[in-house]
Specification:
heterotrimer; A mainly alpha (663); B mainly alpha (139); C mainly alpha (371); B: mainly alpha; C: 371 residues; 14 helices; 1% strand
């Protein structure tokens, strides 16, 4: 039987092996149609490993580490990954994995949802060119993501971080012959790179401050606690740089522009990477670095403001989009904004509470957003790749299973009581409210609470707007539609929909507290918390209020799209410019274009002009030897014997000189 | 006695005659023979020094020279074959492709004078009867 | 520079000029020239070469069978080489080359290399036959062709070749002609042995009041000293000079001669001292004799620093006698080849194999390459 620490290695290793096998299967013609098997099998096995690890964590709560530190000999057992330089300046990074409660939760979500999405993809991607490539990259993504979560030092984490970025690039650009997909992939890659530069700078800044010894989390956090008062400005800068990385990866203001475009990829990929797992990596990073951020309340507030602003802006844009996947994409941005908001409360409220709220929302969001995306994918699959909501409606008659699963996800996203999203969103609101009572920044947090409440209302509205327009009303389908629901797609939908309905009960505040208790076992959170005790009480008023907001939003959508069909157009014309502002995504892409792209284009033009001038100058100088060469060019007349003659004359002259001048 | 210097002189003469042939003759095969002539001159030098120093190094070196010359002969003849197939001539001056771009081809000034008429070969007087057309020549 | 008697080398230059003219005249061209002129010049050049070989290289050649064979084979080789490069018909060139190879093989036999002779006949004869076949096969065309009738830069090519030949022959003459050295040795040993020194060498004895002045050398003495200096230069030809600037000292025989010549210059001739002159002349004669023996290889170069890289040792075997080649030529070559030159012979074999493959690959018929 494998020991639990060695299971840790299996978690990223199995999908990696799966990726290699998928690639090999893709290279063999006979095996190509079976290329999904290794990916699905390895994802399932990886999930089994995760289940074992989480069971062990629930048992005693102590982090599981690999390689196992031998306490009897007291020697560090390191598996060297790489080592650069020598002497004083050695940078050596070991391959070390560690699973604590935060990682356990992340892994659970990643491998479980990952497995079901792989199963869904079997049906969705059937017959697509590059079938094996798809599964290979998805499997590689699972490997990178689990490695990122399991890493016990910053550099290994960064390797996984870039790995998921690469897989995201490859999958967004899956249909690479389509210019829009290729552009979207490039945009996603470049925009996240902006954040990653900040992240790696932040990592090295902290490493430099921590005696340049190790990138290990515990080592750096311990040093931070000791040295913070001497280097507070530098640490603030480091925290801002890390936040920069998180903002890029998790698509927050100002770097969120890549995520809506990333919907060019296959829909299961949108569900897995751009909704459930990868984009939440920023939240994971912030949670992991909670011991750092708890020291800098200013940065915490910044995080919260960024989160709230992103949530509001994305929800506002989502109100009017016609593309079903785009609505879901903006909703993802908005929900991640919620998570940022929650994590950003760590300074004012208790860090454990903030991180728990953020991760809890991350966890439930993964389920219900995955099921929403997959349902949208199912719709797209049936509607012959049409995803514009204006072109279909009333699909509940032809796609009943999809309708029910989408409804489950929508209810959860809207925050209707008892569904998963309700519990987590309620917890976030409660955390923000708690932060609002703190001394510093209290008023800011109160404003943010208001923003969050408005966003929740908008969320409920746009979610059900999408639902009503897609599944209710008259049956309308685009040309060439062929609605069908193969079991290989329906089963994952049903499983994940059940999750969207019920997963919230892992921490339904007045009833169960498993999630909170589990998370708070993470040693870093305990360290960040610094002994503050959190009373996990049920705020009934807030719960009723949030339920009311959700129901209000659902009701408004019902009124506008079911009861009075013309109300939506009237409301739009009444809103006037505001409506167009939302429809055109607040013109952010256009503003970025004006602010960044155009000046760069101008600079490039100037450089081109300069180059032309210099090039001509160089050519002018280069023509001088050319004209001088005209004099001796006739010597190169191509006659072999002429060359030989020249050589012979040279030899004769040399021998003659030896004879007459030397002797 | 005949000293090494005499052999060296003969070797030098053969070498220089070969050099002149290589430089001036335009037939590829004659050029090749001239190169072989130069090698003969060098071989005489080696063997003379071998005799002079009383060891066999010079002779061994000559053996290697002959081996290389044999390789050269093989490759050169194969190349001549290919070149002849291309232009139906063994004239080395036809191959000027490696000259500087834009330079005119170095050609021959005037056409060759016609060859003097050779006297016709003498005919033997026919012996016996001339067989008539269509008649079987043997039974 | 060395003495004027050797530097001229007319005996080398004359046949070269004649030969150059002959070859230039005989090289094929568009105009038909009377070949008799070329033949005459060629005979002149051959005679010049003979004279050079007889007289130009020092040692007197005995009228032996070896000499006759040598001159016969060399003459054949040179004549047929000339015919080869001047023949219009490539087939004749090939035949002439075969004759050159056969004559060269005769020279190999004279040089005690019977195995090489056999190998050369076999290999070259084979190669010649093949070449000859190719000549017949390929260049069978109607009428004269440019390739055979015209030549590229005949005057320049002949000039370059014969200038090179002239320099080589003059160089050989300088290195191997010991005529001036022999004369100097004879001259000085005559002077050393003579009981009565010729008064023409000695400056007149000085009177008492002239002691302080330095008496001038007589013309005869001056000529003698110049001859000795030139002979010394000639003997040490090509060896690095001594002196402080090179960090190399001349070896002791050279220094002895230099001292002796200086002694004659300062004291012997000027101070009318016959005994001293005799002694110094003896030293010069002995020293020159020894150096010449070293140069000719009949004496080992022992204990002599001649280069800045260290001592030059005798090349092979014991010093003193001329070195002998082994009598069993084939077995000796085999032993050397497969012991000292094993790697080289393997490489040569590989080279032959690759050349075979390459020749087949190049000459193989290609469908698309055909015109």
């Amino acid at each position: 039987m494998l020991s639990v620490p060695s299971l840790l290695v299996c978690i990223p290793l199995l999908p990696l092996v799966g990726a290699i096998f998928c690639a090999v299967f893709g290279g063999v013609k006979e095996l190509r149609r079976w290329a999904h098997l290794p990916a699905a099998l390895c994802a399932a096995l990886s999930f089994v490993c995760v289940a074992f690890v989480v069971a062990k964590l629930t048992e005693d709560g102590a982090p599981i580490e690999f390689p196992v530190q031998d306490s009897t000999s007291g020697q560090d057992v390191d598996i060297q990954w790489f080592s650069v330089g020598h002497g004083q300046t050695t940078v050596s990074v070991p391959f070390e994995l560690s699973a604590d409660a935060i990682a356990g939760i992340m892994l659970l979500g990643i491998t479980f949802i990952g497995f079901w999405i792989v199963v869904f993809s079997i049906g969705y991607m059937h017959g697509s060119p590059g079938f094996a490539r798809y599964f290979s990259v998805v499997s590689l993504f699972l490997a990178s993501m689990t490695l990122m979560v399991l890493a016990n030092n910053f550099i290994l984490m960064f390797a996984g971080w870039e790995g998921v970025g690469l897989c995201s690039y490859l999958l967004v650009g899956y249909w690479h012959h389509k210019p829009s997909a290729a552009d979207a992939a490039r945009k996603a890659f470049l925009v996240t790179r902006l954040g990653d530069v900040g992240l790696i700078l932040g990592i090295f800044l902290m490493w430099a401050l921590a005696d340049q010894h190790s990138f290990n989390y515990a080592w750096i956090f311990n040093h931070t606690r000791v040295k913070f008062e001497y280097y507070s400005e530098v640490y603030t800068a480091a925290c801002l740089l890390i936040l920069c990385g998180a903002v890029g990866k998790s698509a927050q203001i100002p770097l969120y522009v890549w995520l809506p475009d990333a919907m060019e990829g296959p829909t299961p990929v949108s569900a897995l990477i751009h909704a459930a797992t990868m984009v939440t990596a920023g939240v994971y990073l912030l949670a992991r670095c909670a011991p750092l951020f708890v020291l800098v309340p200013g940065v915490q507030v910044t995080i919260a403001i960024i989160g709230a602003a992103t949530a509001l802006l994305a929800a506002f844009i989502a109100l009017t989009q016609h593309d079903l996947k785009r609505v879901l994409a903006y909703s993802t941005v908005s929900q991640i904004g919620f998570m940022f908001l929650a994590v950003g409360c760590g300074g004012a409220a208790a860090p454990v509470m903030a991180v728990t709220a953020g991760l809890f929302h991350l966890f439930t969001h993964a389920f219900f957003k995955a099921v929403l995306f997959l349902s949208a994918g199912s719709v797209m699959h049936g509607m012959h790749d049409v995803i514009d909501m204006r072109q279909f409606s009333g699909l509940k008659r032809v796609m009943p299973i999809t309708r029910w699963t989408f409804l489950a996800g929508a209810l959860a996203l809207a925050g209707v009581p008892v569904f998963a999203g309700f519990w987590s969103k309620d917890m976030i609101l409660e955390t923000v409210l708690e932060a609002g009572h703190s001394d510093r920044f209290g008023s800011i947090y109160m404003v943010l609470f208001g923003v969050a409440a408005v966003t929740a209302l908008m969320t409920a509205f746009y979610t059900f707007r999408a639902y009503f327009r897609t599944f209710e009303g008259e049956l309308k389908m685009p040309e060439g539609a062929h609605p069908h629901e193969p079991w290989v797609m329906s089963v994952p939908l049903i499983v994940l929909a059940l999750g969207a309905v019920g997963i919230g009960f892992v921490h339904a505040t007045p009833l169960t507290h498993w999630f909170g208790n589990f998370i708070s076992k993470a040693p870093e959170l305990m360290q960040a918390n610094g002994g503050r005790h959190v009373e996990d009480h049920a705020n009934w008023g807030l719960m009723f209020g949030s339920a009311a907001i959700a129901l209000l939003g659902v009701g408004a959508a019902y009124y506008m799209y079911r009861v009075k069909p013309g109300a939506a157009e009237k409301a739009a014309s009444a809103a006037g410019n505001v409506y167009y502002l939302s429809l055109n995504k607040v013109y952010v892409d256009e503003i970025y274009n004006l602010l960044f792209v155009q000046p760069l284009n101008l600079l490039a033009g100037i450089c081109k002009l300069f180059e032309a001038v210099v090039y001509d100058l160089v050519r002018l100088i280069a023509s001088i030897p050319r004209y001088m060469a005209e004099v001796i060019r006739p010597l190169q007349n191509g006659l072999v014997q002429f060359y030989a003659l020249t050589m012979a004359i040279g030899v004769a002259v040399f021998v003659g000189m030896l004879l007459f001048f030397h002797w | 006695m005949i000293s090494v210097s005499h052999y060296l002189a003969v070797g030098a003469i053969l070498f220089c005659l070969g050099l002149i042939g290589f430089l001036s003759r335009r037939n590829l095969i004659v050029m090749f023979l001239s190169a072989e002539l130069m090698l003969q001159g060098v071989a005489i030098n080696f063997v003379a020094f071998s005799r002079h120093h009383g060891n066999l190094h010079g002779q061994v070196f000559t053996l290697f020279v002959i081996a290389v010359a044999a390789c050269e002969a093989g490759i050169a003849l194969a190349l001549f074959l290919v070149l002849y197939r291309r232009k139906h001539s063994l004239d080395v001056s036809l191959w000027q492709g490696l000259r500087e771009p834009g330079l005119p081809i170095t050609g021959d000034p005037e056409p060759l004078p016609p060859e003097p008429e050779e006297p016709p070969l003498p005919h033997l007087a026919p012996a016996g009867a001339i067989p008539a057309r269509g008649e079987p020549t043997h039974a | 520079m060395i003495a004027s008697t050797d530097s001229l080398g007319w005996i080398a230059v004359l046949p070269v000029i004649a030969g150059g003219l002959a070859v230039w005249y005989a090289l094929p061209g568009t105009r038909r020239r009377p070949q008799a002129v070329a033949g005459l010049l060629g005979v002149l050049a051959l005679a010049g070469v003979g004279a050079y070989l007889f007289r130009g290289l020092g040692d007197r050649i005995p009228e032996s069978v070896e000499a006759a064979l040598f001159f016969g084979f060399s003459g054949l080789a040179i004549v047929f080489a000339g015919l080869m490069i001047t023949a219009r018909n490539p087939a004749r060139s090939a035949l002439a080359f075969a004759m050159v190879v056969l004559s060269t093989c005769g020279l190999f036999l004279l040089l005690a290399a019977p195995f090489l002779m056999a190998a050369t006949i076999v290999i070259y004869a084979g190669a010649i036959i093949v070449t000859f076949l190719f000549v017949i096969m390929l260049s069978r065309q109607e009428g004269p062709s440019n390739a055979d009738v015209r030549t590229r830069e005949p005057a320049l090519a002949a000039a370059a070749g014969f200038v090179l030949l002239a320099t080589l022959l003059v160089g050989l003459q300088r290195v191997y002609s010991w005529r001036s050295v022999d004369a100097a040795i004879e001259h000085s040993s005559d002077l050393a042995r003579s009981s009565h020194i010729d008064e023409g060498y000695l400056s007149p004895p000085r009177s008492v009041e002239q002691v302080a002045q330095v008496s001038p050398l007589t013309p005869k003495a001056q000529a003698f000293l110049d001859e000795m200096r030139a002979a010394l230069e000639r003997v040490r030809l090509g060896a690095p000079r001594g002196g402080s600037e090179r960090g190399v000292t001349d070896h002791k025989y050279v220094q002895e001669i230099v001292h002796a010549i200086e002694g004659l210059d300062r004291y012997g001739f000027r101070q009318h001292d016959p005994d001293d002159v005799r002694q110094e002349c003896q030293t010069i004669a002995d020293g020159l004799q020894r150096l010449k023996a070293m140069r000719l290889g009949s004496r080992g170069f022992t204990d002599i620093v001649v280069s800045e890289h260290g001592v030059v040792k005798p090349v092979d075997g014991e010093a003193g006698d001329a070195r002998q080649l082994p009598a069993a030529n084939v077995s000796a070559i085999g032993r050397t080849l497969f012991s000292d030159h094993l790697l080289a012979i393997e490489l040569a074999g590989t080279l032959l194999l690759i050349a075979t493959v390459g020749a087949i690959a190049i000459a193989g018929t290609r469908r698309e390459g055909r015109p």
